[in-house]
């Protein structure tokens, strides 16, 4: 059985003449251990789909199911880090374990192990305000992986970072997820990020977002960031951009004319 399944999934916002169809219908299966990346133009419903998967939004129609064990729930990493300013780095990473009522000594040990792995051990007692953006995102990644999730949901986790740091964290995440083996669904605007990380790249249309294409990067696992220099990488990136071009153009046409695709009269 797929770890993530969506059938006839759609979501609308507003009512009456102001109702906007934001997403769908979407059909999606993500197999156990698979890393799937969703790319698409701004406002196409990518984050809406992920928030439905995380249980933060309800669908307007259809269904989305996550199949996880109670002891290994889904974990989500947000674009804005989602860590707590009033908790220390150690307490942030331990948070999910505390929710699961893991004994404090074992929870501390597991949290410290992830901090060590992500190069944050010396900041265990620090607060997020003392950290850079990249370090905060490392804390968010450590917190998510510390609970040993079966499903990992990521919403533009590196969007706020500069290009160099983004590349470094992509490579770190690639190594971590290949070791952890969690089923992963990543939302991103970056075609490069999707090709480096994903087993599959799904292209979404302009709003209302639907899956209009699928590509499988031809790079065996375990892989590293070195695939960026492979000629096939550049060729597939160009192919994906051609698929996206019309959808991005549609978004800008809507902004210029005020005509919203998916609006109801």
Task: Describe this structure as you would to a colleague.
The protein has 2 domains: 1-63 and 151-259, Rossmann fold (3-Layer(aba) Sandwich); 80-149. The protein is an alpha/beta fold. The chain has helices at 46-53, 89-99, 104-117, 133-146, 163-180, 191-197, 231-257; strands at 4-13, 20-30, 35-39, 61-66, 75-77, 151-155, 183-187, 200-204, 211-215. It is globular. Helix 2 runs parallel beside helix 4 and helix 3 (104-117) crosses helix 4. A hairpin with a 6-residue loop joins strand 1 (4-13) and strand 2.
In short:
The chain is α/β, with parallel strands linked by helices. Helix content is 37%, strand content 21%. The protein folds into 2 domains: 1-63 and 151-259, 3-Layer(aba) Sandwich (Rossmann fold); 80-149.
Detail the topology: elements first, then pairings.
Blueprint: E1 4-13, E2 20-30, E3 35-39, H1 46-53, E4 61-66, E5 75-77, H2 89-99, H3 104-117, H4 133-146, E6 151-155, H5 163-180, E7 183-187, H6 191-197, E8 200-204, E9 211-215, H7 231-257
Parallel strand pairs: 3-7, 3-8, 5-6, 6-7
Antiparallel strand pairs: 1-2, 1-4, 8-9
Helix pairs in contact: 2-3, 2-4, 3-4, 4-5
Organism: Streptomyces cacaoi
Keywords: ATP-binding, Nucleotide-binding, Transport
Domain ABC transporter: 4-231
């Amino acid at each position: 059985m797929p770890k993530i399944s969506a059938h006839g999934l759609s979501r609308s916002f507003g009512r009456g003449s102001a109702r906007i169809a934001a997403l769908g219908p979407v059909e999606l299966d993500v197999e156990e251990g698979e890393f799937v990346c969703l790319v698409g133009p701004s406002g196409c419903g990518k984050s809406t789909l992920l928030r439905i998967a995380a249980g933060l939004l309800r669908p307007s129609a259809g269904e989305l199911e996550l199949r996880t064990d109670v002891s290994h729930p889904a974990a989500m990493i947000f674009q804005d880090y989602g860590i707590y300013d009033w908790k220390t780095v150690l307490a942030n990473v331990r948070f999910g374990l505390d929710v699961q009522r893991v004994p404090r000594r074992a929870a501390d040990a597991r949290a410290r192990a992830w901090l060590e792995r992500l190069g944050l051990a010396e900041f265990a007692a620090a607060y997020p305000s003392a950290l850079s953006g990249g370090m905060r995102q490392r804390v968010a990644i450590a917190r998510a992986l510390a609970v040993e999730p079966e499903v990992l949901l990521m919403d533009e986790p590196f969007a706020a970072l500069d290009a160099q740091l983004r590349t470094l964290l992509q490579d770190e995440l690639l190594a971590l997820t290949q070791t952890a083996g969690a089923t992963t669904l990543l939302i991103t605007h970056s075609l490069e990020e999707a090709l480096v990380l994903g087993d599959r790249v799904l292209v979404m249309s302009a709003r209302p977002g639907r899956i209009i294409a699928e590509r499988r990067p031809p790079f065996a696992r375990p892989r590293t960031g070195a695939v960026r220099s492979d000629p096939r990488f550049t060729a597939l990136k160009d192919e994906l951009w051609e698929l996206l071009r019309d959808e991005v153009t549609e978004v800008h046409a809507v902004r210029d004319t005020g005509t919203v695709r998916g609006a109801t009269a």
